[in-house]
Structure formats: C-alpha cells, structure tokens
C-alpha cells in the first residue's frame, strides 16, 4: 500500500484546471491563489511520479495520462461528496446544500414560483442554482458539478434517474394577422416555415418544437438565432415572424405588453415533458423525489 495518497484538495485543483484550461481561472474557481493551485498540482505530480500537465506561457495542455487521471479524480471527488450526502439523507429531508441546474427555457418561468415555497417549507435547504443549456447541465450532473437538473424531455441525458413533473404544452405566438382569429389552435402544417423564429442550437426547446411539428423542412427553413425566449418575443413583436413558446412562459406573462397572441399547437405530440433528473443510485434519491413532488405541485 502506498505511504502517501493524493489529497482531495490536489484532485480538486487538477479537475478545476482541466475544466478551465487556465491556472488563474482554475485558482479563482477553487478560491485559492494561482501559486497555491500550481504548487498543489506539482506536489501531485511528484507524488505519483508522472507529468500530468504540460505548461507553456500561453497553453495548458494535459498529457493523455493526465486526462485519464483527471477523469478518475472527478469520480473520487463525487464519491467523497456523497459521503456527506449520506449523512444529510439520514437527517431532515431537503436540508443542507443542494446544487440544481435549470435550463433557460424553464428557469425564468418556474423559479419565481417554486423558490418562495421551498424557502418557507424547507428553510434548512441551501439551494444553489445554475442556469445552463441541457447539454452542459447533463455534463455537469455526471461530472458532479450539480446534484440534479430541472430538464425538458425527451433529451438524452445519459444514465440518470428521473421523475416526471408535468406536461408543458407548446403554443405558436405571433401577430393575430399571421395566426388568424378563427380558431384557438394552429395546425403544424399551417406554420409558414419561412417566418418561423426559434432558439439557436443548444436549446432543447428548438428540438422539441421541431419534433412536435414533424415537418423536416422546418429544420432547414426556420431561422434559428434567438438566444432567449424573451429576445425572440421582441423580434416577433417587431414583425419578424412567429415563434413557438411553452405554456409556462405564457402563464408567466411573456407576452404582456406586446401586441402578440398565442394559439395552441395542434400536433401529434404538442408538449414537452418537464422532469427532475439526478445520477442513478444517488444517496439523496429520497430528497429528489420529495423535491420533484414540490415542483409538480407549484408549477
């Protein structure tokens, strides 16, 4: 058995450097000085007798072995964090620190409703929130940066457990002159693909909207340039086309103070499914199920 083992702090420094690719930014993320982080990684290299990081003035490049060890370090750090999770799970429900990622097409519409309830009913819960697209959120979940993700399905998030919360119906929004006033719904076949504005790549709502319409030409013809739903609404309100919005955004008043109206999408699968997902076999699984029930109640 080795006399000396890497410390968790050294592993944390290594993972941060891989994430940020820069000693200064990695040090900031770890709340230490750059010299402290650099010294910690050099101590780790000396301890295991291999070079993990090639250093130049401009570039930080991990060796192939360094990448493998950093990946292993992530798993070790995640297991260490779960030791604390085990203790918290045995105590009061929904207490202690919890890190949750929320995708941008959910965060501004759900969080204002759910946070007051959580603060009132679970005052010992310290919920750290991170807004990021689905891909980054799932990656952060598997790397241990977050504990759970509030996500819209279907989405390939890897080996996770999940609890369905509710269906979120899709609507087509635009000037009444483009949508027509004769019906409360609009058929997917009636959407003018040359006038459709959607979120840019990386936002799963775009894929959900296109899948719901089941029209391959929409993917080729739709203009995908919006960085947020609020931005797209402003463009539509300026006469640039129509867009698709989830029901939760409409309930939150995203069309207030605009001249736009919304029609329910008439399609085979006109909804996305909102769910809470977490790593399989997490020791806080009971907490996540409880959190999911709270989220479903207040949506």
TrEMBL record:
Gene3D superfamilies: Periplasmic binding protein-like II, Winged helix-like DNA-binding domain superfamily/Winged helix DNA-binding domain. It holds the Pfam family HTH_1. InterPro entries: LysR_HTH_N, LysR_subst-bd, WH-like_DNA-bd_sf, WH_DNA-bd_sf. Residues 6-63 form the HTH lysR-type domain. This is Hydrogen peroxide-inducible genes activator. SUPFAM superfamilies: Periplasmic binding protein-like II, Winged helix' DNA-binding domain. One of its GO terms (cellular component) is protein-DNA complex. Belongs to the LysR transcriptional regulatory family. It comes from the Bacteria. It comes from Sphingomonas alpina. The keyword Transcription applies. GO terms for molecular function: DNA binding; DNA-binding transcription factor activity.
